[in-house]
Amino acid sequence: MWDELHGIEAKKRAEGNFAQLRDDVWKLEALLGRIESARQQRQILQDDRTQLLTHPNPDQDAILVSCLRAVDQQLTNYIHCLVTFKSLPPGFDINVKLIVYQRLLELALSSQNFVHAVESTLAQLPPQQSNDLRTLKAVLRTAKIDFMQAYSNLRKFGPPPPESQSLIPDFSLTTADRILLPVFAHTERLNRWLKRS
């Protein structure tokens, strides 16, 4: 291919274009790898947190929550980078919108499943374990807030792509929960609008 190019400038342009394409391919592959790695790391942390429900330990739970939030922030950053990727290099036949929606859906489903796990553990807890009861009720409040944030992010994305499922919360929200969910969504929209201004 290079021997068919005429002139030094044409060869330099071709080499520059090739280098840019190679860099874009590497960046996209690395980004997709980071998204998958963070997704797996999040699942492991969520599983550890679910196992901790049978023997509540507020200190360990706080560490896991902190780690989960850090991984969620990483995932959010990676997803944002994927969305802002100008154009996909040739040979990448991926639906960016579908990947983004699936990651947001996974976050919301994982949060919802954790709420169910906490509720199930609370239902099985003997009344004489009042310390565990208080701890688990606090975990449930936090889990519902985490779910509302994840669900709000999913709603902000918009309707699901045709090849995806939608999420309908399958646990009952209190009146306060129903009020907070739209507030989270509105606050996020307002923050994005203020950043653009």
Question: What this model shows, in words?
Answer:
The chain has 197 residues and is mostly helical. It has one domain: Methane Monooxygenase Hydroxylase, Chain G, domain 1 (Up-down Bundle), CATH 1.20.58. The protein has five helices and no strands. The chain is elongated and about 85 Å long. The termini are far apart. The mean pLDDT is 81.
Break the fold down into its secondary structure elements and pairings.
Layout: H1 8-51, H2 58-84, H3 96-124, H4 130-157, H5 175-196
Helix pairs in contact: 1-2, 1-3, 2-3, 3-4, 4-5
Number of strands: 0
Structural domain count? 1
Q: Which class of secondary structure composition applies to the elements?
A: mainly alpha
So what's the overall shape? elongated
Q: What is the terminal-to-terminal distance?
A: 48 Å
DSSP helix fraction: over 70%
Q: What is the top-level CATH class?
A: Mainly Alpha
Identify low-pLDDT runs. Answer: none
Largest sheet: none
Q: How many separate helices? A: 5
CATH level-3 fold name: Methane Monooxygenase Hydroxylase, Chain G, domain 1
Beta-sheet strand percentage? under 5%
Mean pLDDT: 81
CATH architecture assignment name: Up-down Bundle
Q: Rounded to an integer, what's the Rg over CA atoms?
A: 22 Å
SSE ordering: HHHHH
